[in-house]
Amino acid sequence: MEDRKEVQNLKLRIKYFGFSLVIGTFRAVSKFSFKFENIKELVSRCYYYFKIWLLMSKNSFIVMLEQKKLFFLFLLGKVLRFGFFILFLVFLVKGTENLAGYNSNQVIFFFLTFNLVDIVSQFLFREVYRFRPLLVSGDFDLVMTKPMNALFRVLMGGADVIDFITIPPLLIVLAIVGGGLNPNFFQIFSYLIFIINSLMIAAAFHILVLAFGIITLEIDHVIWIYRDLTNLGRFPVDIYRQPIQGILTYLIPVGIMMTFPVKAMLGLISSWGILFSFSLGILMVILSIKLWNRALKSYTSASS
């Protein structure tokens, strides 16, 4: 009885936290004024930065492809790890008939979705892993003087060619396995929107890592802590007991990033869950950018 009361109290606290989060997000978003001129300028800036991203990604691809042996070793390692884990999941679910109430196809789809979010975020935000040398060498001073947003440069300064190669086959496998779940149009649309929200949360985490790196110079350890936490989303968070499940869903939103898209595909997300998830994604991006701007104010130039 006491355990049930504790779980109920935890759920009430989570709901109260979620309600406060939604209200706070609406207040933050309401501060922005949207005019036609602003939208036109925003589209123009996005196109400008997209061209810069293409140029930097092209340079990153050229550098990586010059090291052919290293490139093929990394690619082979990713493919083997992915294949072995798929086999592990198949044998695991066959031995237990289901995992937290999900059948083998659904569990595999959870794992594929985890890989999609993880690989796409690494593809887009690979430059974060190279941020510490910029700080230590003083090259970040040069980044600050260039006519582009410094956050954009250190967050999306060059895509990863290995992830670029692995994304298309992953999408094909996702489409095949997802088609076996017989989703309707609304469920597919919800899944895609939740994937975008997951990438927003991933972007917020990476921005927080960059801000923390400016303040402490500790980037490598923090980014790997983030990777270890997200690896808990390889399986649906339903397999964890309370309060771990609640922590991974609401406090450290691994569940929202990795589990909620599939639940939306299966029609298992309530309207409250949808509202909370997107409110959290928007609020995390806003807060991470604010922390980044505050960290920049405390940045000490290498020449000073």
TrEMBL record:
The keyword Isomerase does not apply. The chain crosses the membrane at residues 12-28, 72-93, 105-125, 154-176, 188-217, 272-292. It comes from the Bacteria. Signal peptide: none annotated. InterPro entries: ABC-2_transporter-like. The keyword Kinase does not apply. Keywords: Membrane, Transmembrane, Transmembrane helix. This is ABC transporter permease.
